[in-house]
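Q: I'm writing up a methods section and want to include an example of the input and output format. Could you take the sequence below and give the corresponding predicted structure tokens, formatted cleanly so I can copy it straight into the document?
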Amino acid sequence: MAIPRLLVVDDDAETRSMLTQFLRQNGFIALPCHSEATIREQMSSGRVDLILLDVMLGDENGVEICGRLRSEQDVPIILVSALSADNHRMAGYEVGADDYVAKPFNPELLLARVRAVLHRAKRSASLVYRRSVSVFEFAGWTYDAKLDEVTSPQGYQVALSRKETALLKVLLANPHIPLTREEIATALDVTGEANVANTEGSGRAIDVLVGRLRSKIESDPKSPELLRTERGIGYVFAADVVTKDSA
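A: Here is the clean output for your methods example:
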């Protein structure tokens, strides 16, 4: 499954760092930003599932940034501000914000609001797009999620265990995004396919699972080209992934 990728936008470095770490500890990929330029830089380099956007960004105005982003795309946006009067909230909602959280806030409450907005966005997308993605193609390989079959570039099927398949699904949903062992373990735990999150030795369990998957999809497992080690972080799936909808 795709791990939600969030942008934390605040011009205060301490607040930005605190929120980023808190969200990472709760299973999200959280990336810090401090301006509209850095938001757009992150959006151009990969998928963004939600933006936490502070209203007061020094010389920039978060409400105006929200309006510009909303005119271009539908990424969910939660405005965060010390300005909590009704007129300020209405200004945010009028430019398309999905929610408005007033400072100071309880981090657990913010987490609940983030999850609620992500859930609504996912449900909305599922209502618009009735067909579900079922085929993934990468580096000549094909994974058919409906048939649960993996086919090599040479045309033969490769048998994967349940846990190996669950890991492959997480990687296919997050191509070119460096993932920590903890993020992978959390994603596997959410799928219900591999209970390794928050357990002693879970990092080692992920390393073993990665090694097993590499032995089946890499031409040279000792020098992997698809599932690479990202030094100091964890792993990254380095192949472009093309998805196709089921009929």
